[in-house]
Amino acid sequence: MSAVIPVSAPDDALDVLTLLALKIAPRQFDLSYRFSNISIRDQIVRAQMLIQQLHALGAVGADAVKTDPGPSFDLLICGAGAAGLAAALEADRLKLRFILMDTDSQAGVGGVLRSPAARYVSAAMYEWPHSNHADHRYPLRSAAFGAASVGLQLHMTKPLPAAGVGGVLDAAYATEVAGWIQHAANWGSQSHIRSDSCFIRGATLEQRSKERLKQMTIGPASVHAIPLKARPLPALYISTASNTEAHHFRFVIYAMGYAKEKNQYAEGLDCPSAYSNTGFWDCDEVMKPRLGFTPPAGNKHWRPRVAILGSGDGALQDALRCLLKVAHPLDAWNRVIAKSKVAGSVEISQALRELATADMHATMAATWSSSPTIYKRLDRRFALVARKLLNSRKVGSAVSKAVLKMLRKDVDEVMLVTHSGHFSKAYALNRFLLILLHRILRREAANGRPRLILRSGPVNQFSVNGTPPGPRGGTLQFASGPKTFDLIIVRGGLKTDTENAFPHRVGLSGRDTGRAGLGRVPLPIRPPLL
């Protein structure tokens, strides 16, 4: 007997990839949870695509008043970082009614874009090796095709520190943000019906609202099996100080950042409590002379030794920071090709084409497979390109000399310890620079140059001497014996195993595993032109 195919549900049109990848429950979306593409541009694109798609399908705005009557606002946007601000500005451009809320009491963009850490951000830097990697504006001009504008745009000429990008956004959208804040004046006074989009600072959802939202995620079916508009949202109570208002919304958008970092030196093994690790977006001392260490008395030539535990992009970035005197990875590449005879050479053009092709195929393969060998093969392809480039009679010597000129002289050794002997998911720029650097330092290991050692784990034990807040380094026990480092950096990835790992704590379970797969799908350079 053949299976009976049910009649399509009324909101089947809402089951498009943009919405499916972000849906966590009926009428609830999350712009960050379980995604592997998490650059600032990725966050902005996800936010803009979501708002555009909801509007195009009539789920919000004037059309929704007829088909989905009742709610006084289209959207509740939780979080005013880059993703939340992009969602609010896109909603504002499309004349939707929304409330933007953030627990921070300060105005302007929040999240990591307030971090004073020496981490550089660009909308296009990690498009490398593609030609648009040097256009740091958003949307990328080369991909706009004369399209209509989007709500949030970035006008930058070079990568900037994270806080600098936050400043650019604050300055560009100060008028809009100030207007939304003004609309939230007298929050909690029931003297008038609130009708304008507003931004509420220092705000929280009351616990009863969180519980009712969480209940909407509970059920025997997969998240994807539940229609997006299966049931309406409850009234949501938003509090600031001692004042509270309740409103009805068509959709809730969580834009509250990513999971917390793991503080584990090996799977299931927490770092010693006395060890002081610095989070990726926290201020560290890596860019200071000798990584911030004071040499022992009478030993002015002392240089620190570093171990970095991790195989992803964060670990690669920190290895480059410990080895090179550059502001950011793209700065390093620009110095490699600084001479016109190098930049304009056939060898460089060929290398970029091969790298782009290999990275594209690996990204596509990783989207459709969980094979652990994909990135191992990518490392090998990148190493072949690096070898050909360095062996070139025309540009090999110039490339090598340019890299050697960038080396720090105040670091003795950097050991990058990976679990499986190869790098995992990382941007092509960071992956290639580190592979190129490793090959050069193997050839030129002399004259006080730092050593770069790539080592496969596992680390069996991690010990330190001291009490919290304790040392930045310690002793790592390998199968071959112990080794002591002045600085140990742990980049073990993000927590995904507990409900409390996520800022919004919406209580998702294993039912959402399909989103982990959707989260690997690469995003377009900019939203589709609707």
Automatic annotation (TrEMBL):
It comes from the Bacteria. This is FAD-binding protein. It comes from Stenotrophomonas maltophilia.
